[in-house]
């Protein structure tokens, strides 16, 4: 580099670091569906927000059920074993640790490679600056004003120069530098068009200014008597006409009028003059375009995108009734307005009102971000919310008191306080989400990671001082956060739709089961009704038989002079009584039934001269099992028919009757030593002797009647009935 005449050129070095902007809530401060820690989650509780959506102890019960908690896991017990670091990493990665290291999950690595590649390409495209003069010192003097006609005493200063002096000394300041043209700078004779001209480049010149070269006016911006904090982010590029240049000892005068640091809310709005560069116009144009794109173009584009995100979040909050989405949308809209003010939006306001509005917007943005994080994590403590919200009133009132000359004395400490509050809320959220809703932790973690990547990228893209550090990164984080929240809500909605569909199918199955049960019950009730009507009719018939026919038969028995008629009437009376007993439907104890059968059979066989052998186990006689009236009647008739066959057709002298019972069946066996069934009826045992009638009666009772017989071997009848 060449030293200009009368100017002190020092080695290029990075200017002292400036404190980052405070009071800008990280984009991750406004979060999604909660984990309802009630996303849910979850989650994330419904996560996977929500909201870590889980139950927590609060001073007062929440106004609504952990909004955002569309679904989250329940909070673990206090005594539960905390998962290890490996287990937490596996939970966050959705599988094993090896799955987390799969190339499909190398998104951050690829992003880092892209950012690094862009940075290297940017460094290579800047080219050599050997043919450029950088002026880092100037002579400073206060310009004359109506109140002070005399100019101030000149003094030597080092650039960059920030207006940090007292407001009482505020007046246009004049900067004078002297320089020689670089060795390879175009001359008046050799320049051809604008590309061949030398240029004057000032990376940051904040305030109304006038630039003069060797006494000639080159450029004017704003009014020196009414400076405004607009257009402080755009670098200044002025072509140096060859006709005005000298080979050496050129004099450059810059008159600057602006607000001092204490009169503005942010340092970027205060008067400022960065080092002056003299060099080829085509190189300076590239530097100007790059900084304009980064400081103004990208910042305003991201602010517009964040404003759209905030509007969409408010609409989603109105539709879903999730408070944390409403707070997030309010924070995004406030952040978009703040970015517009920081980049010099033209509003019909005075300078104090403009700066007051800039400072007054910071607390509501931070408060909305904090409340969004608290509601998303399921925390709702009234006194914390009220104390945080009161800051939105205290700060604007204190700014009114401090305006117009002490605005920065209020904004600077409050920016630090608000930033710390947002960071604490963010830390609490991440801590709770790490343990209870991995899905919500991933959403906020990715947004925070993109914020850090954006901050690193803008730092790499600017070699010297960067204006509004972190503003663009926070805007990127807010957009990523909203995208993550929407994705989380879609996942929760999909899960809810799946659960609703499963519930619908289960309900349909249940309805089918209930319908089937109702049909069965209706059929059973119809059968019961039929049985009731049948039983009632049977009782009526039995009563008629007993009262009418029974009385007449009994009269015949007692009045008949013929013994044969009296016997037939007596048998008919017994059959009638048996039929009446079957019609009444009263069950009969097995012991009673066996007693009746034995008495009747013994009397009939003794009259016919046939010896009887009756085998009945004692446990069967003492059994409490009962036989239905129908089964008793049919069994009695089968037994009578079998005894009748023994007496009339078998010619037997001995008959054996045995009974036994297992768990569900009753078996009756009747054997004789008669002549058996003749050969001509072989294979047709159900013909004659009432055999078919006995089998029909057994079949009606869901039982069976087997007949075994052969000529000269007697006959055996086995009756098996279910009890």
Describe the structure.
With 723 residues, this protein is α+β, with helices and mostly antiparallel strands. It is built from 15 helices and 20 strands. The strands form five sheets. It has a six-stranded antiparallel sheet with strand order 3-2-5-11-8-9, with no helix packed on it. A five-stranded mixed sheet has the order 15-17-18-20-19. Helix 4 packs antiparallel against helix 5 (323-342), helix 5 packs antiparallel against helix 6 (351-376) and helix 9 (438-461) runs antiparallel to helix 10 (471-559). The chain is rod-shaped, with a radius of gyration of 54 Å. The termini are far apart. Mean pLDDT is 77; it is low at 1-81 and 187-194.
Keywords:
alpha+beta, 5-stranded mixed β-sheet, 15 helices, 20 strands, 50% helix, disordered N terminus
Task: Explain the layout of strands and helices.
Blueprint lengths: L84 H9 L3 H4 L6 H19 L7 E3 L1 E6 L12 E4 L2 E2 L10 E7 L18 E5 L2 E2 L1 E6 L2 E6 L14 E5 L9 E8 L14 E2 L2 E5 H40 L2 H20 L8 H26 L5 H21 L4 H30 L1 H24 L9 H89 L3 H22 L3 E2 H19 L2 E5 L2 H4 L4 E2 L1 H22 L3 E8 L3 E8 L18 H10 L3 E6 L5 E8 L1
Mean residue pLDDT: 77
What ranges have pLDDT less than 50 throughout 5 or more consecutive residues?
A: 1-81, 187-194
**What Rg is obtained from the alpha carbons, in whole angstroms?**
54 Å
What class, by secondary structure content?
alpha+beta
Helix count equals 15
- For the termini, the CA-CA separation is 120 Å
Main sheet strand line-up: 3-2-5-11-8-9
Major pleated sheet: 6 strands, antiparallel
Percent helix range: 40-55%
Strand content: 5-15%
**How many strands in all?**
20
Shape: rod-shaped
């Amino acid at each position: 580099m060449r030293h200009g005449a009368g100017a002190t050129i020092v080695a290029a070095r990075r200017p002292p670091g400036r404190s980052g902007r405070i009071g800008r809530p990280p984009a991750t401060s406004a979060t999604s569906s909660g984990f309802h820690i009630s996303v849910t989650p979850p989650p994330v509780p419904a996560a996977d927000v929500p909201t870590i959506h889980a139950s927590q102890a609060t001073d007062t019960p929440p106004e609504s059920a952990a909004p955002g908690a569309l679904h989250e896991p329940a909070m673990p017990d206090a005594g539960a074993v905390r998962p290890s670091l490996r287990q937490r990493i596996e939970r966050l990665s959705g599988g094993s640790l090896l799955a987390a290291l799969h190339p499909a999950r190398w998104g951050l690595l690829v992003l880092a490679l892209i950012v690094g590649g862009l940075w290297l390409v940017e460094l290579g495209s800047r080219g050599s600056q050997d043919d450029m003069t950088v002026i880092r010192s100037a002579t400073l003097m206060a310009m004359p004003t109506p109140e002070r006609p005399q100019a101030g005493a000149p003094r030597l200063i080092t650039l960059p120069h920030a207006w940090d002096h007292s407001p009482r000394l505020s007046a246009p300041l004049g900067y004078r530098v002297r320089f020689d043209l670089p060795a390879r700078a175009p001359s008046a004779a050799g320049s051809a068009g604008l590309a061949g001209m030398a240029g004057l480049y000032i990376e940051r010149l904040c305030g109304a200014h006038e630039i003069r070269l060797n006494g000639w006016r080159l450029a004017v911006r704003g009014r020196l008597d009414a400076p405004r904090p607009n257009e402080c982010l755009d670098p200044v590029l002025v072509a140096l006409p060859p006709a005005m240049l000298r080979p050496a000892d050129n004099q450059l005068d810059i008159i600057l009028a602006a607000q001092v640091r204490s009169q503005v809310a942010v340092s970027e709005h205060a008067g400022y003059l960065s080092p002056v560069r003299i060099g080829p116009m085509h190189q300076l144009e590239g530097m100007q375009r790059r900084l304009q794109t980064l400081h103004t173009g990208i910042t305003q584009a991201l602010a517009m995108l964040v404003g759209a995100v905030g509007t969409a979040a408010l609409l989603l909050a109105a539709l879903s009734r999730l408070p944390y989405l409403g707070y997030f949308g309010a924070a995004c809209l406030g952040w978009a307005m703040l970015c517009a003010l920081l980049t010099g939006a033209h509003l019909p306001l005075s300078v104090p009102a403009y700066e007051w509005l800039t400072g007054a917007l910071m607390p509501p943005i931070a408060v909305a971000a904090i409340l969004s994080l608290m509601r998303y994590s399921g925390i709702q403590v009234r006194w914390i919310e009220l104390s945080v919200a009161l800051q939105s009133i205290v700060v604007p009132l204190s700014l009114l008191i401090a305006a117009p000359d002490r605005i920065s004395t209020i904004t600077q400490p409050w920016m630090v306080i608000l930033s710390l509050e947002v960071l604490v809320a963010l830390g609490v959220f991440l801590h709770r989400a790490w343990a209870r809703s991995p899905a919500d932790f991933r959403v906020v973690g990715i947004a925070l990671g993109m914020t850090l990547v954006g901050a690193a990228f803008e730092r790499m893209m600017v070699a010297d001082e960067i204006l509004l550090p972190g503003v663009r990164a926070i805007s990127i984080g807010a957009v990523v956060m909203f995208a993550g929240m929407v994705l989380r809500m879609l996942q929760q909605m999909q899960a809810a739709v799946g659960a609703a569909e499963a519930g619908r199918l289960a309900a349909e199955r249940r309805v089918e089961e209930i319908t089937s049960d109702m049909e069965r019950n209706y059929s059973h009730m119809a059968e019961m009704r039929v049985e009731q009507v049948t039983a009632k009719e049977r009782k009526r018939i039995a009563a008629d038989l007993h009262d009418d026919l029974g009385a007449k038969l009994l009269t015949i028995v007692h009045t008949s002079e013929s013994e044969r008629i009296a016997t037939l009437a007596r048998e008919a009376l017994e059959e009638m009584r048996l039929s009446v007993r079957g019609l009444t439907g009263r069950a009969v104890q097995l012991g009673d039934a066996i007693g009746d059968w034995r008495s009747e059979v013994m009397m009939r066989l003794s009259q016919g001269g046939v010896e009887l052998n009756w085998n009945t186990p004692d446990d069967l006689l003492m059994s409490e099992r009962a036989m239905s009236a129908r089964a008793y009647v049919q069994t009695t008739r089968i037994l009578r028919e079998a005894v009748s066959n023994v007496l009339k057709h078998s010619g037997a002298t001995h008959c054996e009757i045995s009974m036994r019972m297992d768990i569900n069946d009753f078996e009756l066996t009747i054997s004789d030593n008669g002549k058996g069934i003749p050969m001509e009826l072989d294979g047709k045992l159900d013909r004659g002797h009432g055999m078919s009638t006995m089998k029909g009666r057994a079949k009606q009772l869901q039982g069976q009647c087997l007949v075994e017989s052969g000529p000269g071997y007697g006959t055996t009848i086995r009756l098996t009935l279910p009890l």
